[in-house]
Amino acid sequence: MEEKVLIQSKKFNIKKLFQIFVITGAFLSVLLSVIFTLDDMSYYNRNYGENHEHYSRCYKWPDDYYDDKRDDGILNNEDKMDCPQIIYGSAIGYAFHSLDNYYYLPTLIPFVSMALLGGLIYLWLRSYELTVTDKRVYGKVQFGKRVDLPVDSVSATATIQLLKGVSVSTSSGKISFLAIKNANEIYSTINNLLIERQQKKESVVTKVEAKVDETEQLTKYKELLDKGVITQEEFDAKKKQLLGL
Questions:
Q1: In this structure, are 25 and 51 located in the same domain?
Q2: By the 8 A CB rule, do 98 and 40 touch?
Q3: SS3 state at 54
Q4: How far is residue 200 from each of residues 140, 150, 196, 203, measured CA to CA in Å?
Q5: 168 three-class SS
Q6: What does pTM read for this prediction?
Q7: Total domain count for the chain?
Q8: What is the CATH number of the domain that holds 186?
Q9: 78, HSE (Cβ side, Cα atoms, 13 Å)
Q10: pLDDT in tens, 138-176
């Protein structure tokens, strides 16, 4: 008998999920940059006054820096570079100087972290797919691993709420299919197959039990016939009744 496909899984847009992670990381990085900038401006205003026009900062340059400048003919003596003047016209200028000195590199951490996390989740969930037929349940799980389960081997099924999916239990364990858009419909289809299988088993058991009961009754009537309690005609009539002849 030809296998009949009952239902197939529909995927969520995993790429969109990755984009959400990237956008969220970018937003957090921008927010952190704004916080750093406001903190620098606040520091400048606290220490040098809101109306302060210039801020001088001295550096002690390395000796090889002076040597290079003298060799290039830029310096005549070391004193010219003892205290170079860095001028900031405003608090925002001071903040931008911090940006030039890689002070803002930590603000990239949220963006990089969210992008990596989103990428890992994308690689994890993108391969999931599931097909249910009247004979088996098959598809792919994490990282493209293939799964093929005969319906007779499935003992239970359930929905997964957190990552929207379906779990299928067998004697070997539980297998989860995640990121499935129509998870509830697939759950209902598998559950109906299990109910139908159970009903068939119960029907077979009932027939077997009935057959056993008929055999036991015939045995009793045969004993009554052998003892002369009933006649051959009565036995034959009861036999036809029990066997439905």
A1: yes
A2: yes
A3: coil
A4: 30, 16, 6, 5
A5: strand
A6: 0.56
A7: 3
A8: 2.30.29.30
A9: 9
A10: 999 888 889 999 988 888 999 998 888 999 998 888 999
